[in-house]
Amino acid sequence: MPKNTAIAERRFEGVDGTEHYLLITPAAKGDFAAQLGEVEAAYGAALRAHGLSPASAVFRRIFVSDILNQMPRLRESPLLADGDDPVAVSVVQQPPLPRAKLALLAYHVSHRDGLRKQRLSPHHVMIEKNGRRHLWSTGLCAAIDHGPVSPERQTRAVFGELTGALASQGGSLRDHCVRTWIYLKDVDVFYQGMVESRRALFAEHGLTEKTHYIASTGIEGACAHRFDVVAMDAYSLPDLRPEQMSYLNDFDRLCPTRDYGVTFERGTRITYADRAHHFISGTASIDQAGQVVHRGDVLRQFDRAVENVAALLRSGDATLDDLSHLIVYLRDPADCPRIEASMRERLGDLPALIVQGPVCRPDWLVEIEGIGIARHADAALPAF
Q: How far apart are CA 349 and CA 302, in angstroms?
């Protein structure tokens, strides 16, 4: 394994088990097979170093630079295979910057009683811990191979797959879906079609401005089907109690998303007896009027986005120090060195990955998202 392979880890240790996030980026030398082998070796070494068994794996997201050409080789990798030990795996084309062909984000949970896992279908894995279920849905897409279909119909298809899985477990989109990640091929063209279709679909499921929406990122990305323009991952809690969920907002800094015609929450907080999870949606350089701030200046846009994330976390009694990882989406890869330097200055050793991913408005040069885990004490709430 090359010495300059980047491996970053952040953990949260609580009464009800430890959560681990691992971020691995190869040395960016050699072809895809060589870099994939490097990531596989580094991942195995990291698990051994942190005393994590393969059975503790919950979720892996693999970022790749050319999914149509790289997916055949990736399907042979143990990163995708799970056999009798199901793991939710997402593969998305978002080239890791500055030059790598792939990167890995892995989420593990270690607990004295272990995890119970069940693969419900190729796209859905149920993880049970302390008698409560966590549904990870990955690679949801229309799987179109023979010609284009509108983004509106594809959006319906991916949400239909999710709502069907939730219904099979006694859940619903409105009450039990916590987070979605929506990937759009050519976001500048197809984003609006997805937004309009999602708005109508949400209304049908009782998700309106009078109820709530779902934390989400809508960003440039692609799945392994040539003609799909919409793909999605999601995280849901079929046993979620209403008092566990609240929403992260700071209206002095960011307006409600409905003010500019979109339907997602800025962030969602899920509380347990010993911790709180903060799911931060894709966040850009936006102000309280819904306007783009610092047009043309990627560094100032990045600073504003970080400040907005900090404000959202504060609204849920958390800080930037509670982030487990950060994903940074850049429109222009040439901006990577400056953003990387600014990120390290502001956020230190936080596991962070920069990928090429244009944001939904061309004027937004950068967007960020992450998940925070903060201490919380309320014995009346369920254990994590």
A: 17
Cα–Cα distance, 330 to 358 (Å, whole number): 6
Place of tokens 């958390």: 318
Task: Supply 23's token pair.
Answer: 């971020």
What's the CATH number where 327 sits?
3.30.1330.40
**Dist. CA 199–CA 192, nearest whole Å:** 11
Are residues 153 and 103 located together in one domain of the fold? no
Residue 89 belongs to a domain? yes
Give me the residues paired with residue 173 across strands: none
Q: Is the dihedral of CA 242, 244, 245, 251 positive or negative?
A: positive
Q: Are 292 and 222 part of one and the same domain?
A: no
pLDDT digits (tens, 9 = 90+) for 86-120: 999 999 999 999 999 999 999 999 999 999 999 99
Amino acid at 107: Y
**Residue-level length of the chain:** 384
Long-range interactions of 209-214: CB distance < 8 A, separation 24+ = 209/256, 209/258, 211/174, 212/174, 212/247, 212/265, 213/257, 213/263, 213/264, 213/265, 214/173, 214/177, 214/178, 214/179, 214/180, 214/264, 214/265, 214/268
pTM over cut 0.90: yes
Q: Which helix (H) or strand (E) holds 344?
A: helix 336-347
CB contact at 8 A, 86 and 122: no
In this predicted structure, what is the pLDDT of residue 309? 98
User: What's the chain's average pLDDT?
Assistant: 96
- Domain holding 317, by residue range, is 283-384
Q: Phi/psi at 333 (nearest 5 deg)?
A: -60, -25
Residue 317 pLDDT? 98
Q: What is the mean pLDDT of residues 321-325?
A: 98
- Report if residue 247 sits inside a domain: no
pLDDT number for residue 1 = 56
Q: Are residues 123 and 216 in the same domain?
A: yes
Torsion, Cα of 340, 342, 348, 354 (10° steps)? -30
The CA-atom distances, in angstroms, between 67 and each of 5, 11, 324 are 22, 30, 27
Give dist(CA 264, CA 296) in Å, integer.
26
For the record, the structure tokens of 74 come out as 């990736």
